[in-house]
Design goal:
This protein has 88 residues and is mostly helical. Helices cover 75% and strands 0% of the residues.
Length: 88
């Protein structure tokens, strides 16, 4: 088994991050609740000595609560509330 991520792994990760952003922006799930779930999953992977799985869960956990993402999410919510002038 290799420790390298494939292009396919990166694509799955990017798709999941997009879905997480949609869920958070739509208020379907809170960033903190998702982060907590990923932290729990990370600990389960570590208990099974699956370091790669734990690292992936930590990547998603930190994505959910990243302050830079929060700024982006707030901007997206603002645009949804107040569309730019001249938009349909």
């Amino acid at each position: 088994m290799t420790n390298r991520y494939t292009d396919e792994d990166a694509a799955y990760g990017a798709a999941l991050k997009l879905i997480l952003d949609v869920l958070i922006n739509a208020n379907a799930a809170s960033a903190n609740d998702l982060a907590s779930a990923f932290a729990t999953m990370r600990e389960k992977f570590l208990a099974k000595e699956n370091v790669k799985g734990a690292a992936i869960m930590e990547t998603f956990r930190s994505f959910c609560v990243d302050p830079q993402r929060e700024k982006h999410r707030e901007l997206a919510k603002q645009v949804q509330r107040d569309p730019p002038a001249g938009s349909a």
